[in-house]
Amino acid sequence: MRYCVDCIWEKFNVPLKRFIMKRVENEEDADDILQEVFIKIHNNVGGLMDHSKIHVWIYSITRNTIIDHYRKNNKKYEILELPEDIESFTEKESSYNLEIAHCLKNMVNTLPDIYKQAIILTEFKNMTQKELSEKMGISLPGAKSRVQRGRKKLKEMLLDCCCLEMDRRGNIVDYKHKSDECKYC
């Protein structure tokens, strides 16, 4: 299946701009990032293997482009950090996302130390996997493996704990604990 980049633009440009604007300081930066995103989409859409995941693929490109923007400008911005206090989220954020975020934070704390450290440094502190390998004194494939295994363990813990229903953007629209005695939430 071949995608029409113009069709992707029509469908995604407005929601992506909103997504970016929530994460950058000004509209000019948001426009630059949006342009970079669509250049990446245009250059890589032919290699997309699972066409049913185009939405996730596009938002992953967008998220990574935002991170690149902050790294390029030597700014600290921790996209994935879970805040200490819930009030730092805007009211528009789903309460389900907040509740699951608390669960994930507790789950990260129960990971074996090598995976916990890898997840905190890469996901919460925006360290690249290469930087992680240098900091921990391990090979790059070893660092990648730790991050991947840590993510896998978190996913397993979350799916063991809860049944999740997500919208097409990956936001949690409903969830249910599988047990009344969840040790994470």
From TrEMBL:
GO terms for biological process: DNA-templated transcription initiation. Coiled coil: none annotated. The keyword Transcription applies. Residues 15-75 form the RNA polymerase sigma-70 region domain. It comes from the Bacteria. GO terms for molecular function: DNA binding; sigma factor activity. Keywords: Sigma factor, Transcription, Transcription regulation. InterPro entries: RNA_pol_sigma-70-like, RNA_pol_sigma-70_dom, RNA_pol_sigma-Z, RNA_pol_sigma70_r2, RNA_pol_sigma70_r4_t2, RNA_pol_sigma_r2, RNA_pol_sigma_r3/r4-like, WH-like_DNA-bd_sf. Residues 103-154 form the RNA polymerase sigma factor 70 region 4 type domain. The keyword Transcription regulation applies. PANTHER family: RNA POLYMERASE ECF-TYPE SIGMA FACTO (PTHR43133), RNA POLYMERASE SIGMA FACTOR SIGZ (PTHR43133:SF62). Belongs to the sigma-70 factor family. ECF subfamily. This is RNA polymerase sigma factor SigZ.
